[in-house]
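agent: user wants the structure for C1q domain-containing protein from Oryzias latipes. delegating to structure tool.
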Amino acid sequence: KNINATLLLFSCGTSGADMTSPALLLTFISGLTVAHYAAAGPPEPCPFDPCNVLKEINALKEALEARVVPKVAFSARTSKGGPYGHFQEDTTLTYNAVITNVGNAYNPPTGIFTAPVKGLYYFTYFAHGGGMDRIQLQLKKDGTVVAEIHDHPTNADTADNAGNAVFLELEQGNQVYVNLVAHAAVWGEGFATTFSGVLLSKS
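agent: tool returned. relaying tokens verbatim.
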């Protein structure tokens, strides 16, 4: 009788709802357990424990969340009013005009991208410069060069373009940035000198 009442209550309370919802299933199972205790009196130890079911559901939820790949992608350009560089020392190039920054892993004031999760990332960077200027940019991961673009100065043309790209396996917290080598320069205005990155897969 009590079990029938529980079934009726569950049926009425879930009318039009998703019967596969974990919360509703837990409600139904818990109701059956209570009805069983009420009808049979103190039962023998039961192998079914709603608390264990809840723990298993939470564990499954955490496992599914661990598989979800967060959206991480950025693109930024330099907006510095013209030629930029000719410094006496290497300088981190700050791409201060953000185009896209999904996940906010790129820091415009510092020019540094910090990996929010462990995974496989893809980075590209491009530069435009005057023909008489030397373009030399290094893509660095935690201070180590992983890619480079280099164009020697010449009076044979008035401008040059260069670019490179790389896949990187990063740990959470690794930093990636572009180093402007001492005495080199780029055209710091417009839309040709850019830095982009995206998380491809989480590991």
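agent: one observation worth passing along. The CA atoms of residues 118 and 171 lie 4 Å apart.
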